[in-house]
Design goal:
Blueprint: H1 3-9, H2 16-22, H3 27-33, H4 39-53, H5 67-77, H6 91-105, H7 112-126, H8 132-145, H9 153-177, H10 181-192, E1 194-196, E2 199-200, H11 201-205, H12 214-229, H13 242-252, H14 257-261, H15 265-337, H16 341-348, H17 351-364, H18 381-384, H19 386-393, E3 397-398, H20 403-415, H21 434-440, H22 448-465, E4 468-469, H23 479-483, H24 500-521, H25 546-559, E5 563-564, H26 565-576, H27 594-605, H28 610-617, H29 622-632, H30 635-651, E6 663-672, E7 682-683, E8 691-700, E9 705-712, H31 721-727, E10 736-739, H32 746-754, E11 758-759, H33 793-798, H34 800-811, H35 817-826, H36 832-854, H37 856-879, H38 892-926, H39 933-937, E12 947-948
Parallel strand pairs: 5-12, 6-10, 10-11
Antiparallel strand pairs: 1-2, 3-4, 6-8, 7-8, 8-9
């Protein structure tokens, strides 16, 4: 551990909560304390007794005691705290008291027998833990419970390390003994065999997912088959060993083939087993996602062909119709004059041309002329070879309703794409959607091409919604398995939403009252607010007088010294210790070279890249930076570091002026990719013709970045709206979330309400949204035309237990909200669970719509919070400016690392600005200047003009820091208009 971690581990209590818990003295304690003769010895006795109870160690000679602890204990003893200065003038007095306390209260020193007993217990605990610090915490708690005096921190640290080592060794021996000779040979072949001269088979397995194509799907399926041929995937592993195997996998995915070759054979094989298990699950997810993308691409290509055909027919249509009109006129004239009709027609155009015109016009006049499925048959070639392999590779399971689909999948797998083998006479059709039927049942028989494509399309929909699942997958597992607590953990307390009938009565009454109130007050309002049978929502003026606050902002930022981004991060690290959260994936130790780590962080955040950063920073070589990225940067370390900075921002006095600290907003920001061949990006027409990804970021009302996730450029934002507010690690207690139109859905309304949180979005085209109620619309007078169908009480009540399970899993973080919401959003409208949640969401959306209409303050608050997110996006764009701001990473994991680094660096800049702007305001007040609180609240910590972001990536050898560890402010003139 670091010095900071060691100091915190056995620190004396300095908070009210901890002191009340551990430093309360009962009658027996006070009786024992009273045996001391003087006030100083009584207070010393009490202090030593409390220190032995928590943190469980001796008081050190000359140790500085927290003032709150000293006052708390002195008050209970009934003496003045300052008498402690007279305690233990004689050294034997302290030791005599310790001996008396240990004898009276049963405290014991750590002897060899006790140590052996603790090591037995500790080794069992280590089997299910992979974080040494958690194990150390449990050891200290156990020693306190057994009243064993904790010796020096290095002693217990070595005990924990020894237990972790034993657990590793035992696991390696247990799993390696279960491998037969063939398994071991196949595992060794992954390291030794080459796909080509410069690539091992293991490296080939770990290559990023290629772009969407049937060949790419076949390659991923080949990788899955190669992993399964090792025979280790189905190896039985005890449940208690799963956490440590997961830790081995986290290490294994980072090891090169050369690193594996240097390991002890038994450990190499076990780490490979864990790595292959992890890779198989990841490749399964990638395979199913690729299959779904292929189905989506087939429909997209069919739609493009249809549009081209329609466009072509439009260009030629006028000529065709003119020709047909001429034919009809010639026939009419010939009939009236008795002339030869055939000769008159042929004079206009050959009969073959007229016949072709008739066929085209008839097809164009068909009621199905815009049916995309007429053009989809050409996409069958994408599935002909790889489709059956995909079906045979995985164990597809599903609900009873998918029986027809699973039977069709079995038939497809058996046919193996061989068109010479006919379909069974009783081929299943129960899974075929109505829009496919006229194409499948063509000419009294079954059109095989359309039947196969309809089956693949139905399978893609079923996998997305969870109606069909694959047990070996993570993302596409059964919904029931996702909602269950993690295996091996103590069962959680059942989550309850209360009685559904009582809940419905309360919400129905509130909804009815709100609707009646708005309907009753319409006559007294401006008629323009209700026109054309629509509620018209007034637009609020711009929030805040930002022009008035500009002089204050310029004055404060003018006092902030110009600083390199490198020195900004160094100072923030010194204040918060956020770098220490980036533990090594194997040892848990923080980066040994802080500057090399920060250079890596800046390279990722600014989009510069490691190679270029190594050339310009002078801190380390590219390989050293790559090691920092590989072994220290991962999702959990970024999350912990970001939580550290978020808490630090909220603790800044200036940040309290920006907001109450319980609101958050979420917004997506698009980043262009280098090109479709470089990354798996999607083209979103809203952002142009280049592929993009979006970084969806959650920000608190005090400008503290809370969470980020990378989503596809065309993905909906609503399913990710809750990830930040429910998935962060900081101590911020959030109660309200604001999003723009992309993050709005009825299910999000429902989930937020059931979790006890406020969902206050900016809903686009709110005037066009329907209202909902349990009562008939005519009850609400002039509002009646605005209502959709009546809400269904029975649907909500019948699914209340399932809703409780879903909400409970999100509440205790058993499952990521976006994973559940994605499945619910993929369900067909008739799915009852999703429909029940939508009913609840419609209740809450209607109530929110009425609040939006009635409360100008709500509209101003939502607009102001979303503006903070937009302003923060400008800072993020300024930071990630290298390579034209385009991400050129091929894999999603690399994109996630870049997004997390960007979010962390922006958080560091915000904290830096908060601290120095606060000092600038204090300096202005010290000079006698009066600062308008309204203008102070409009300051923003998002400025970067005083921070050098561009190319100067070196560290100052010596920063001119004051006694408070901060740089001196600049002496700039202050304009009196600021305080007016």
């Amino acid at each position: 551990m670091t010095a900071r971690q060691r100091a915190e581990l056995l620190a004396l209590a300095d908070s009210e909560t901890t002191m009340v818990r551990y430093y309360g003295l009962d009658t027996d304690d006070l009786t024992a304390i009273a045996t001391a003769r003087s006030p100083a010895t009584r207070l010393g006795y009490a202090l030593q007794l409390c220190a032995l109870r928590y943190p469980g160690r001796h008081l050190r000679r000359g140790e500085l005691l927290p003032a709150v602890m000293l006052d708390h204990i002195a008050e209970q003893v009934g003496v003045e705290a300052d008498v402690i200065a007279h305690f233990a003038r004689r050294t034997p007095t302290r030791y005599d008291q310790l001996a008396a306390i240990k004898a009276r209260f049963g405290f014991r020193d750590l002897s060899r027998p006790l140590r052996a007993e603790l090591m037995t217990w500790l080794t069992r605990e280590a089997e299910i833990l992979v974080d040494g610090r958690v194990l150390l915490d449990r050891l200290l708690t156990e020693m306190r419970g057994r009243r064993i005096v904790i010796p020096g921190i290095s002693v217990v640290e070595r005990m924990a390390a020894e237990a972790m080592h034993r657990a590793d060794t035992d696991l390696v021996a247990a799993i390696d003994s279960g491998l037969n000779g063939d398994m071991r040979a196949r595992l060794d072949a992954l390291i030794d065999d080459k796909v080509h001269d410069r690539q091992s088979r293991l490296s080939w397995l770990r290559e990023p997912t290629p772009r969407v194509s049937s060949a790419s799907l076949g390659e991923i399926l080949e990788k899955v088959a190669a992993i399964r041929r090792t025979g280790t995937i189905d190896l039985a592993v005890e449940l208690r060993h799963e956490p440590r195997l997961a830790q081995f996998a986290r290490e294994g995915v980072r090891y090169t083939a050369q690193a594996f070759q240097q390991m002890h054979p038994s450990r190499r094989r076990v780490v490979l087993v864990a790595t292959l298990r992890e890779m198989e699950a990841s490749l399964t997810d990638a395979t199913i996602a690729m299959f779904g993308a292929l189905v989506g691409r087939a429909h997209l290509r069919a739609r493009k062909r249809l549009e081209q055909r329609i466009a072509a027919s439009g260009r030629e249509g006028w000529e065709r119709l003119t020709r047909v009109a001429s034919v009809l006129e010639a026939m009419t004239r010939a009939a009236r004059s008795g002339a030869d009709i055939v000769r008159a027609v042929q004079a206009i155009a050959p009969l073959e041309t007229i016949e072709a015109d008739a066929g085209i016009i008839r097809r164009s006049a068909s009621p199905h002329k815009n049916d995309v499925l007429e053009e989809i048959a050409a996409e069958h070639r994408s599935f002909k070879r790889v489709g059956p392999i995909f079906l045979r590779t995985f164990d597809f399971q599903g609900t009873a309703r998918t029986a027809s689909l699973r039977e069709a999948m079995t038939i497809l797998a058996a046919l193996d794409g061989d068109q010479r083998r006919p379909l069974p006479s009783d081929v299943p059709l129960g899974h075929i959607e109505r829009r496919w039927l006229r194409h499948v049942q063509a000419s009294g028989g079954i059109d095989r091409t359309h039947w196969e494509l309809a089956t693949y399309s139905a399978l893609a929909d079923a996998l997305a919604s969870g109606a069909i699942w694959v047990p070996s997958s993570r993302t596409y597992r059964s919904l029931g398995v996702m909602l269950d607590p993690t295996l091996g953990t103590p069962p959680r307390q059942a989550f309850s939403l209360g009685d559904p009938h009582a809940w419905l009565e309360e919400r129905a009454a509130r909804l009815d009252d709100a609707l009646l109130e708005v309907a009753g007050n319409l006559g007294a309002r401006n008629p323009a607010l209700f026109a054309g049978d629509r509620l018209r929502f007034p637009k609020e003026a711009n929030v805040g007088d930002h022009d008035g606050s500009r002089p204050l902002a310029l004055a404060c930022y003018g006092m902030v010294p110009t600083t390199r981004i490198t020195d900004v991060l160094s100072q923030v690290s010194r204040w918060t210790g956020f770098v220490e959260h980036f533990g090594h994936v194997s040892t848990g130790l923080p980066p040994a070279d802080e500057r090399a780590f920060l250079a890596t962080l800046i390279a990722e955040a600014t989009n510069l890249g490691l190679s270029r950063m190594a050339e310009v920073c002078g801190a380390a070589s590219r390989r050293a930076l790559l090691r920092m990225q590989t072994w220290h940067m991962r999702e959990e370390t970024f999350r912990a570091a970001l939580a550290c900075l978020t808490d630090a921002i909220h603790a800044e006095p200036l940040a309290a002026w920006f907001g109450p600290g319980h609101r958050a907003s979420a917004d997506g920001q698009a980043y262009y990719l280098g090109g479709p061949g470089e990354a798996s990006g999607a083209v979103n027409a809203h952002y142009g013709r280049d592929p993009v990804v979006k970084i969806y970021t959650t920000l608190t009302d005090r400008y503290a970045p809370l969470h980020q996730t990378v989503i596809a450029g065309t993905a909906g934002e609503a399913i990710h709206a809750l990830d930040g507010i429910l998935g962060h690690d900081s101590d911020v207690d959030l109660t309200a979330l604001h999003v723009d139109g992309g993050g709005v859905s009825d299910i999000v309304f429902a989930v937020m309400h059931l979790l006890g949180l406020q969902f206050e979005p900016l809903i686009p085209r709110l005037s066009d949204r329907r209202l909902y109620a349990f009562e008939p619309p005519r009850r609400y007078g002039r509002l009646a035309p605005l209502f959709g169908r009546r809400l269904n009480r029975d649907l909500i009540i019948s699914h209340w237990s399932e809703i409780e399970q879903v909400i409970g899993a999100m509440d205790d973080r058993t499952v990521t909200p976006s994973l559940i919401l994605k499945k619910l959003a993929a369900y067909r409208q008739q799915n009852s669970l999703a429909a029940a949640l939508r009913e609840i969401g419609r209740i809450e959306r209607t109530l929110f719509t009425l609040r939006w209409f009635e409360e100008p303050a709500l509209r101003r608050t939502v607009t102001a919070e979303l503006n903070k997110g937009e302003a923060r996006n400008s800072l993020a764009r300024a930071v990630a400016f290298h390579r034209l701001g385009r991400f050129r990473d091929r894999g999603l994991e690399n994109q996630k690392t870049r997004a997390a680094a960007l979010n962390l660096v922006t958080a560091a800049i915000i904290l830096f600005n908060c601290r120095y702007l606060g000092r600038a305001l204090d300096e202005l007040r010290r000079q006698g200047r009066s600062i308008d609180p309204t203008l102070q609240a409009q300051l923003s910590p998002l400025g970067w003009d005083r921070i050098n972001l561009t190319g100067d990536y070196v560290w100052s050898d010596r920063l001119d820091l004051g006694a408070d560890g901060l740089m001196s402010l600049l002496d700039r003139p202050y304009r009196e208009s600021v305080s007016q």
